[in-house]
Amino acid sequence: MPAEITDLAIGYRRLPAGKLANAVTWMELRAPQPDLAQPLAMNRITIPDCASYRAIFLEIGAPWLWDRVSEMSDAEIAEHFTDPRQHLYYGHDESGTHLGMVEFFAADSNEIEITYFGLFPSLTGRGFGKRLMAGALDLAWRLNPNRIWLHTSSFDHHSVIGFYSACGFVPFATGFEIIDDPRIKGTLPRSAAPQIPLIEAEWSACNPRGGNGKGAPASPANRQVAQT
């Protein structure tokens, strides 16, 4: 996570078109959580098939604007996983059905960062998330880290902080990230993550669309009145 703390004045800030602001919460786990859930069977993938890995990553992550693999060549993916500190696991149920994926990084500082975690979209809400996390944490604690940490994203599902809290993670910092919208830069389809507004043209004070019709955007108070 970034070391610096940014001093921001209170108030609204407008981003340039094509940029997205992502509110981030960092969370950590300092001790194993007994009886979290029955762990899924976890299969470590040391040399992933690049086409399969890319398809899995995007099926799980595109709805939340994960686009890392879209910016990586097959050679870069292969090189990434030659680092033994990079761990990739696929979770399976008792029938062998592939349910989701977890990536974590075992840092030299004796900390583990869970970098990617997710179920296939059709499987959410059925209790598999805790089982996938239980499997991931079981593997991670075997490496004897001082702590396991991750960060959430406001692009993620609205229940994500509650889910991680139920798994024992505790928030320890908040911040924000500014990114280029991957749907505009072309690393994800324009149809991805429809819950996140796609804005590619600058708003103009001469264009009242979305404002109050008088050349200025509606104030928060005016927006609230308009909704009542």
Provide a descriptive summary of the structure in words.
By secondary structure, the protein is of the alpha+beta class. Helices cover 23% and strands 25% of the residues. The chain contains six helices and seven strands, in the order E-E-H-H-E-E-E-H-E-H-E-H-H. The protein has helices spanning 50-61, 74-80, 128-141, 160-166, 182-185, 220-227, and strands at residues 19-29, 41-44, 86-92, 98-106, 111-119, 147-153, 170-180. The chain has a seven-stranded mixed beta sheet, sandwiched between helices. Helix 3 links the parallel strand 5 (111-119) and strand 6 (147-153). The longest helix has 14 residues, at 128-141. It is globular and about 60 Å long. Mean pLDDT is 90; it is low at 210-228.
Major sheet? 7 strands, mixed
Structural class: alpha+beta
Overall mean pLDDT stands at: 90
Alpha carbon gap, first and last residue: 41 Å
Number of extended strands: 7
Name the shape in a single word.
globular
Q: What share of residues are in beta strands?
A: 25-35%
H/E order of the elements?
Answer: EEHHEEEHEHEHH
Distinct helical segment count: 6
Strand order of the largest sheet: 2-3-4-5-6-1-7
